[in-house]
Design a protein that fits this description.
The protein has about 270 residues and is α/β, with parallel strands linked by helices. It contains 11 helices and 10 strands. It has an 8-stranded parallel sheet with strand order 1-4-5-6-7-8-9-10. A two-stranded antiparallel sheet has the order 2-3. The protein binds zinc ion.
């Protein structure tokens, strides 16, 4: 359950990072590391993802972030290749207890489409409980071997969005590099949102920063709805402070849009406030 302290903060404009990881493999990072980074970046709240590819099951994530539940919001993982770990009764119990703010699906890394029958019962449960499904889309991190891009194309989310209008869908990474396809899926479907995480590993170069800012502006222009984009970084793959600065610059000081993208949209979509 969300803490009382969290709700007290809702009147102030807060920054919410909608996409971070902890883990023990490939991504090696702890909740303490994340909270230090957030403090340095002025980020109040982060969604933290479980992931079997990072040796972090949903259960382990919940245990590890327990000391920081005022700042870190758990996002579980469902994977069709870990059927004994990720069962329907386990997910249903967590949803009934409101333990998770969302569930992540790793598509390209674990070789399934969002429309595959193996994940449909999980998605139906999420829709029933009003908990969003986050899908990895676009480029796959090079350090994870064997990823297949065809599963990660953002266009597949269109079919799911139409077939399951009550499911809230978040397209991680805006579908990068299929940015126009990703923006169109968000523009067309009322139940689809995108996060802008993961456009760079480590720090921006001047050139990668410029092209990231252009991508965010293109998404905002195409979708014509500031409610659609969620600030996210993909920490620890990249650094929160420079990422937040770049997104703020991309939004060009438009007060309403900045407030929504940097935190308001996440608070609404993930029911944090
Ligand atoms: Zn990620």
């Amino acid at each position: 359950m969300l803490s009382a302290k969290f709700f007290q903060k809702k009147e102030t404009a807060m920054i919410i990072d909608s996409h971070t990881h902890i883990g023990h493999k490939i991504i090696v990072a702890s909740p303490d590391d994340l909270v230090s980074s957030m403090n340095a970046a002025g980020i109040e709240t982060s969604l933290v993802f479980a992931g079997h590819i990072n040796a972090c099951s949903t259960q382990l994530l919940l245990e590890e972030i327990a000391p920081h539940r005022d700042k870190l919001m758990p996002v579980g993982v469902i994977s069709p290749i870990w059927p004994s770990e990720d069962t329907l009764p386990k997910l249903e119990a967590m949803l009934l207890q409101k333990t998770l703010v969302a569930v992540k699906f790793y598509l390209g890394y674990e070789h399934f489409f969002p429309t595959d029958h193996v994940v449909r019962p999980y998605l139906e449960l999420l829709a029933q409980h009003g908990v969003p499904a986050i899908f990895h889309t676009g480029d796959c991190y090079g350090k994870v071997g064997g990823a297949k891009l065809k599963y990660a194309h953002p266009l597949h989310l269109d079919e799911l969005a139409v077939d399951m209008p009550k499911l809230t869908i978040v397209m991680a990474h805006m579908g990068n590099p299929w940015l126009t396809d990703g923006a169109e899926v968000c523009y067309k479907n009322p139940n689809v949102y995108a996060d802008c995480s993961g456009f760079v590993c480590d720090d921006f170069t001047p050139s990668s920063r410029e092209s990231f800012i252009a991508s965010v502006r293109q998404f905002m222009k195409y979708t014509e709805q500031p409610e659609k984009l969620l600030f996210g970084t993909d920490w620890p793959i990249t650094n929160q402070r420079p990422y937040a600065d770049a997104v703020t610059e991309a939004l060009g000081g438009e007060g309403g849009a900045t407030e929504l993208v940097m935190g308001g949209n996440a608070a609404r979509v993930f029911k944090l406030a």
